[in-house]
Amino acid sequence: MAAFAVVFAAVSANASTLTLTNVAGNWSSWTGGVSVTPSTRDEVSELRWGTPRFVGKQSGYDFKPAEASSTHQEDETFALGLFTHHNFPIDVGITSATLDVTFSFYLGEDTDNIYTRTSQFVFSHIETPNMVRVCSNGKRSRVNGVQVGCEDRVTPVTNPSKSEVFTVVEGNKTHKYMFDVTGFDIGDGFWTVENQKNTATLQGRFTYEENVAPIPLPAAGWMLLAGLGGIGAVARRRRNS
User: Fold this and answer.
1) Which of 40, 159, 194, 217 could join 183 in a cystine, given CB atoms 3.0 to 4.6 angstroms apart?
2) How far apart are CA 127 and CA 48, in angstroms?
3) pLDDT above 80: residue 203
4) Beta strands in 55-135 (DSSP E)
């Protein structure tokens, strides 16, 4: 997790808010699939793939950016955009896709300082052929003799939580704020039913740095500190003897 500091003067600005000025998504790469096409429609970044088995639609991903000029309070988790998976009967699916999300914002009322960053999200994809008897999730593609198709799996392989630390100078006071991209709210992933869709929200958070819970030290680290403390105690005893 990388963090860097930016120092600026905030003249009569209330730095306890963050305002998004722009959010955009771009499907930058993918693996597998046939007839794979990225596009943008009404600001929604789309990725479509596969030849429809019947007269219908391709499977695909969408990313709809959050509304620009939205202001968010400190310690508030808010949406950066909405991810959608569409599952339709096709021949060959992708195995992964990469989404680049670029967003800009300013702190408080300081509109002269606009910060822009890009986070990259990689999704692993399982497109189960509907003609198999048993789907990837163990379910049957036919139920009571009726073809129902197979659910497809979407898993966020790279779902980074990145941080930026901002040191804000307000008069004679200095405050440190942290902006986190907390990732998608889909946990380990989801299965999407044939001819249906699933959605997930990309989230962020703006807070005082001291409000962020510290990362716990691994057990090995505590053992190392305990060992060093023991060595120090032995040394003190030797000096006192």
Assistant:
1) 159
2) 13
3) yes
4) 59-65, 71-73, 76-87, 94-107, 115-126
Give the residue with greater pLDDT, 227 vs 24.
Answer: 24
- Cα–chain center distance at 125: 16
| Interacting residues of 241 by C-beta distance below 8 A, sequence separation 6+ | none
Sheet holding 37-41, edge to edge: 5-9, 162-170, 173-184, 196-208, 76-87, 59-65, 44-49, 37-41
Beta bridge partners of 73: 17
Residue 140: other Cβ atoms inside 10 A: 12
Within 8 A by CB and 6+ apart from 3, the residues are: 163, 164, 165, 178
**What is the rounded distance in angstroms from the CA atom of residue 125 to the CA atom of residue 92?**
12
Measure CA of the first residue to CA of the last residue in the chain; give whole Å: 47
The residue count of the chain comes to: 241
Name the residue type at position 240.
N
pLDDT of residue 22: 94
Domain edges within the chain? 5-215
In terms of DSSP H, where are the helices of the chain?
219-240
CB 166, CB 148: distance < 8 Å:
no
